UniProtKB/TrEMBL annotation:
<feature type="active site" description="Proton donor">
    <location>
        <position position="700"/>
    </location>
</feature>
<keyword id="KW-0489">Methyltransferase</keyword>
<feature type="binding site">
    <location>
        <position position="647"/>
    </location>
    <ligand>
        <name>Zn(2+)</name>
    </ligand>
</feature>
<feature type="binding site">
    <location>
        <position position="19"/>
    </location>
    <ligand>
        <name>5-methyltetrahydropteroyltri-L-glutamate</name>
    </ligand>
</feature>
<feature type="binding site">
    <location>
        <position position="732"/>
    </location>
    <ligand>
        <name>Zn(2+)</name>
    </ligand>
</feature>
<dbReference type="InterPro" id="IPR002629">
    <property type="entry name" value="Met_Synth_C/arc"/>
</dbReference>
<dbReference type="GO" id="GO:0032259">
    <property type="term" value="P:methylation"/>
</dbReference>
<protein>
    <recommendedName>
        <fullName>5-methyltetrahydropteroyltriglutamate--homocysteine methyltransferase</fullName>
        <ecNumber>2.1.1.14</ecNumber>
    </recommendedName>
</protein>
<dbReference type="Pfam" id="PF08267">
    <property type="entry name" value="Meth_synt_1"/>
</dbReference>
<feature type="binding site">
    <location>
        <position position="649"/>
    </location>
    <ligand>
        <name>Zn(2+)</name>
    </ligand>
</feature>
<feature type="binding site">
    <location>
        <begin position="437"/>
        <end position="439"/>
    </location>
    <ligand>
        <name>L-homocysteine</name>
    </ligand>
</feature>
<feature type="binding site">
    <location>
        <begin position="437"/>
        <end position="439"/>
    </location>
    <ligand>
        <name>L-methionine</name>
    </ligand>
</feature>
<comment type="pathway">
    <text>Amino-acid biosynthesis; L-methionine biosynthesis via de novo pathway; L-methionine from L-homocysteine (MetE route): step 1/1.</text>
</comment>
<keyword id="KW-0677">Repeat</keyword>
<dbReference type="InterPro" id="IPR038071">
    <property type="entry name" value="UROD/MetE-like_sf"/>
</dbReference>
<feature type="binding site">
    <location>
        <position position="647"/>
    </location>
    <ligand>
        <name>Zn(2+) 1</name>
    </ligand>
</feature>
<dbReference type="InterPro" id="IPR006276">
    <property type="entry name" value="Cobalamin-indep_Met_synthase"/>
</dbReference>
Amino acid sequence: MVTTHNLGFPRIGRNRELKFALEKYWKGGISESALSDIAADLRVRHWQDQSILDWIPVGDFSLYDHVLDMSFMLGNIPERVSTFSTSGTIDNYFRVARGRSASDIAAHSCVNAGEMTKWFDTNYHYIVPEFNRNTKFSLDVSGLLEQIQHARKIHQQIKPVILGPVTYLWLGKSKDGSDKLDRLDDLLGVYAQLLDQLKHAGIQWVQIDEPILVMELAQEWKYAVRKTYYQLQAASVNLMLTTYFGQLQDNLQLACELPVQGLHLDAVTAYDEIDKVIDWLPGHKVLSLGVVNGRNIWKTDLTQTLNWLEPVYSRLQDRLWLAPSCSLLHVPVDLDSEHKLDTDIRSWLAFAAQKLNEIEILANALNHGRESVAEILRENSAAVTSRKQSKRVHHVDIKARTQEINESMGIRQSSYDQRSVLQRKQFRLPLFPTTTIGSFPQTLEIRQTRRDFREGKLPEAEYRQAMRKEIEFCVREQEALGLDVLVHGEPERNDMVEYFGEQLGGFAFTQFGWVQSYGSRCVKPPIIYGDVSHSHAMTTEWIEYAQSLTRKPMKGMLTGPVTMLNWSFVRDDQPRAQTCMQLALAIRDEVLALERAGIKIIQIDEAAMREGLPLRKSQWNDYLDWAIRAFRVTANGVKDATQIHTHMCYSEFNDIMEAIARMDADVITIETSRSDMELLDAFDQFRYPNEIGPGVYDIHSPNIPSVDSIIELMEKAAQRIPVERLWVNPDCGLKTRTWEEVKPALHNMIAASRHLARHL
Ligand code: GLN
Ligand code: ZN
């Protein structure tokens, strides 16, 4: 018989119960015990939802982040926080997560939050563990043991989930330059205790996640993996070593040889390795295959999966386990919540609950023959075929247009040097020109107006009038402040991807398809289900209106193709690159529409360009090739006199500088203020040829930057970049700030720019 299990379930709740509970708790609106009750209820509910499986996970739930949970379980709590000994663990937990607990806010005793960074190549973010040469670990497994007790009341076979020690170390950061790997021995001592305690609690299988096995590992890390599992085998509890998000490649043999009782392989991305793993895996080990995609929302083609799975099953027999490819953390909870989705599209989808059903069906088909699930298989095939053949997915004309993309579409008419002469003559901007990144404060009133319009409570004409009023207000404020290049403020946009997706062909939107990004923050990624098309101008009306109000240049604002792709659930029936090129053509149409409407500066945001980098460096060039090509097709069809801006809000450019330069945007605005301009070194060393606007203040903070601090930063910038190629702007859009914060901040920014223009 094949065995079924799950690697992890979404925590946030189908109605985002966890999010709302957390936010109430942080505001002091509910007590700690009320928060714990809500969390416990969610866990119970989720275990029940997973009960159709043989083994259900315990310990995958988290109030904020599972890596932070691990740090607390291992007693690795930053010193700056552990001195708050008077309050409870939960407060310290939130201090590391967010820099403050509810009680700190009144007492003004905030601490620095732990750094947050992306979890592998997903849009989930974890709190980075901190190490130094004095880091000591001490086990606190009470929380997990309690959950085990609870889960046992609901399901017989439960499998604790923990992050493996090597991945835990790898994800963390040494704060004093000491080698993280020097902590391994200590760490293994605590993991051994942990496994021992689980064993004593009657646990048979422990899931131990080592996703770093899908990455390129230096020798010492491979050695660490080997050493770890040789030492942990003493614990005499069965370990299911899980890898996901990619292929094992040169770690395959290592993974197969480790002295553990089971290995989990992401059979979606590492499909090609299954045979090799079966060959290598010793006969007493279990192989868990992640056959259902945990990173996407498409129904699995069950018949096709069975076609290749049946021979695997006849080789492995009882040694075969089935699971989703990775934790279901990365997909929405339940398709049953969706009542407004188009019925065709809905029939093609599977969220977490449906994916577990698929596992169950596949197991039934293997255990009892396909006949036992014949009806379900038929329905599944019908849905899969309908998607394959649907006219809503496939448009010959769009495919043809994508095929016709040629090199010259991505090349500007003249080089930057020539363009810049034209542009300077046309715009007559001062030295250190000032601009903003696009959005201005999204007040409650603006949000309410958009909501009313969306819900049909506000007639369209009135909605448009309200947005125009807001745009006019933004323009007047910017003129009063004295900015050089203005923006319309983006009041009509709920989100930089959704706004465009809703108007393009090929996109669908869910009502409740929330996915955790970090802590209580969730995103609702659009679904790109079909060929992407541009049928009407999406922004010209607003931008033209804004331009009509001022003689200063008005920047048209767009979101780039790579960001649209990376922040959506994308098709699995064609390469990402192809979907990206379709997006590029659609946004290119909008760029040209803006140009025709007389807009002379167009900004194309690529906030998520870096996020799409593959986990293995050896695959970076391939990604960057098509991603940059997509940007170029989007942006570079304009006349020389039209100035293209792009914006990226992160601060690592070193290793992608060459690609950034290839985009050939006239101006790039980037987030830099927190790096003290050091990241401009990359641009300097590369001799980046075009213009740069390094962000001069952090928009995440309510603090008002002083004139001097901005001057100081820009002087540092000027040491690296010739002054005539520097712009002055905030790090990112201002939508989360208030006007009371924005006005003095921009006032100081402009004063600094004027001072620099006079004195540098
Ligand atoms: N133009 C967008 C804004 O200002 C850019 C947002 C982003 O880079 N994340 O809001
Ligand atoms: Zn940004």
